[in-house]
Amino acid sequence: MAGVINVSQFPILRTFSRRSSVPAGIRTSIPATRASSSETPPSSGATTAATRGEEQEAAPSFAAPAGFKTPEPKRFAVRPDKGLDVAGAALALFFRLGTGVFLNGYSVSFVSKDEIPADQYALELAGIKILNACTSFLHVRTVATNLQIFSCPFCRKVREIVAVLDLDVLFYPCPRNGPNFRPKAVELGGKQQFPYMVDPNTGVSMYESDAIIKYLVDKYGDGRVPLMLSLGLLTTLTAGFAMIGRMGRGQSYIPSKLPPKPLELWAYEGSPFCKLVREVLVELELPHIYRSCARGSPKRQILYAKTGHFQAPYLEDPNTGVQMFESAEIIEYLTATYAA
C-alpha cells in the first residue's frame, strides 16, 4: 500500500534500536542484534517462497512515465513558467550571503580556455575558463559510509554545513504528517525533533542543528564553524528569512509511493534550482542520497567525466534507470513517478 514502509529497505531502519548513556545531545548507536531464537522460522522452503512471492506482489513497481524523454541540459536557462519559483528560491542567497555555495577552502583562478584539457571541468564565461579548487585539507578525511539525517524544511543550517564540507548524506525527509520517517525518527531517537543525525562511521547520533554543525566540522572539517553559521540568533533568523520566497513549499506531505531504493541527487544548498527539487523530494517523502557538489567540490569533475557535462541538480533514479538534468523536468518526473 502506498506510504507503508518496508523497514528492511533502508539502512537507518535496520540499526540503532538501543540508546546508551553518553553526553547530552549525543548518542552512541548500537547495531541491532539478530532476531531472538524464540521466534518461529518458516516451517518449509515452500512457505518461504510463498512469503517472498507475496512481498514481491505487494511492492509497487516503478517505471519512467509514458512518453518520457530525457531533457537536454541547458546551462543558466530558466524555463519561462518557473521564473517566479527560481526568483523566490534565490532570495536565500541574499539572506545567507551565499553560505552553501562554496566549499571550505574554495579558491578560483582564471585561464584561457585553450589551457584546459577537454576532459577537465571548468566553468566558461566569455572565452575564459574559471577553475574551481579547494585548498582545504578536508578531502583527506574520507567518509566510509554516508551520514544519515532525518530532516525537515527548517534544517537549512545543517544542509549548509553539509555543502561547505562536501559531505554526502542519505536524507530521510520528514514533512509534516509524513507517515514513514517522522515516526521512525521518534522511535530511534525518542523525540519528534529535527534534524536528527546518525553517523554510521562513529556510531554517534544526535539532535540540535548547532551541535550537529560543531560535530561535523570537528570530525570532517578543520574545526572552525563558518561565520554565517556561528552568529547564534542572527544565524537562526537569517535562515528563517531564507524561506520567505518559498513560504509553505516543501513542508507538508503529499501522498506518495515509497521506492525500494533511495534516489541520488547531485546538488548543493546554495543553488535555487536544487532547492526547488529538494522541496518536492521532501513533500513526497522520498529518501535520497545527496551528492554535495558546491563550487570547489572535486565531485564536479566526477560528474563531468560521467556525463560529459556538469550542471546541478542532476538526478539518478535506480528504481527506473532515469538519469537527468534540468530542475523543472526533474520535478515533473518525480511527481509523475512517485505521487500517489
Automatic annotation (TrEMBL):
Pfam families to which the protein is assigned, alphabetical: GST_N_3 (PF13417)
Coiled coil segments of this chain: none
Organism of provenance: Linum tenue
Annotated region described as Disordered, given as residue ranges: 27-68
GO cellular component term of the entry, any: chloroplast
Biased composition (Low complexity): 32-51
Official protein name in the record: GST N-terminal domain-containing protein
Domain of life: Eukaryota
Domain GST N-terminal, residue spans: 142-224, 261-340
PANTHER family (alphabetical): THIOREDOXIN FAMILY PROTEIN (PTHR45288:SF1)
